[in-house]
């Protein structure tokens, strides 16, 4: 019998959450169930996406796919109670770790002033062993560093000149899809919301073809597997860095 990893339940003592990812649909593979739990509990959750996912549909030109996928992301976010969805202008597939990326994420952290930041994993493989994509890795690592940058007045002083004063209030940074999770979010009652949020990406899902697992099946794999590890029915697993 496989032993379950030692997992702690994610503390619930926060009021504002910022989710930072590379592409539309990144949050809909399970994280959106936790978002649904948080918004229904009265917490404020906002999304910040670095690209519009314009390179994600092989049969559609990027100029067409970008606006379509942006709208699908807004639709998916709305199903879990998120109305504030912002996009940067990075090119899909070309996101590179660096000072510019850290600065743009730090700016959004200062704007939103969250206590919890959730992003994707920055390792080369996901928890299941599948290879992680370059944009995901760059955004995950830059987000971790930007949480510190956001609280330091002297790393990006131009942000203060723009009107974004330092914010050192990020207490927790959670990485979804990590091969080494430390915490879980119990998602009893939030499975269907996660399915609906992924189903909102209609054109993207259709382009994946009939052999690709349906949204409900994917969400069950992610959250059901997380639940098995945590000892509950459905759970989101996170690798959590506690900053304070």
Automatic annotation (TrEMBL):
Keyword Cytoplasm: no
Nuclease in keyword set: no
Entry GO MF terms: hydrolase activity, acting on carbon-nitrogen (but not peptide) bonds, in linear amides
Keywords: Zinc
Biological-process GO terms, alphabetical: glycoside metabolic process
Pfam families documented for this protein: PIG-L
Protein name as annotated: N-acetylglucosaminyl deacetylase, LmbE family
